[in-house]
Write a structure and sequence with these properties.
By secondary structure, the chain is an alpha+beta fold. The strands form 2 sheets. A 5-stranded antiparallel beta sheet has the order 1-5-4-3-2, with helices on one face. A 3-stranded antiparallel beta sheet has the order 6-7-8, with no helix packed on it.
């Protein structure tokens, strides 16, 4: 009975965390330390596959067992490389997460607006991303992406009485009304 509860919890944890990293929901939980985000993704992939594997091994009906093994194999194909890439990236994070560099921040009553320069690697250009971040508990934040732009290298946050603007080369790219 405890094994079944553990398999359910592992599968649910894995599904929720992997879904958060892959599907880009409107609001996501993130750790302040980038290494913790990568490790959580790896553990979630392992938990999801382990939980589904347990259900596949203990399924009473043969067709259900077959369906669960096929589902497990189908999920393994994308999750294994995803986990491997996350594990390979961890040693590079000692200098910080270079794929997302904080350029500016502006405090608000309900959180902090943070402007990041994004870099997805050698095959794409720099971009900007504006997030509304709120600390849930120390070390864990709730992140709500508000805006992003591709092929923009630098930007600043400029605030007025009613808005906070993302400005690049003197041009207003986005205005947020808190």
């Amino acid at each position: 009975m405890h094994q079944r509860a553990f398999a359910i919890a592992a599968s649910a944890f894995g599904l929720l965390v992997v879904g958060q990293f892959v599907a880009r929901p409107p609001v996501a939980l993130r750790f302040e330390v980038p290494i913790a985000n990568y490790l959580t993704l790896v553990l979630a992939c392992i938990a999801l596959l382990s939980g589904l594997g347990w259900f596949a091994m203990h399924a009473s009906a043969r067709p259900l067992r077959w369906v669960l093994w096929v589902l497990c194999a189908a999920l393994f194909l994308p999750l294994a490389p995803l986990s491997a890439c996350a594990l390979l990236e961890i040693p590079r994070l000692s200098d910080g997460d270079l794929s997302s560099i904080k350029l500016a921040e502006h405090p608000l009553p309900n959180g902090v607006l943070r402007l990041y320069r994004t870099d997805c690697g050698a095959t794409c250009a720099y971009g900007l991303a504006l997030n509304l971040e709120r600390t849930v508990i120390p070390g864990v934040k709730l992140v709500r992406p508000l805006w992003s732009a591709y092929r923009v290298e630098d930007g600043v946050l400029r605030s007025s009485e009613a808005t906070v603007q993302v400005v690049s080369d003197g041009k207003v790219l986005f205005a947020f009304e808190p």
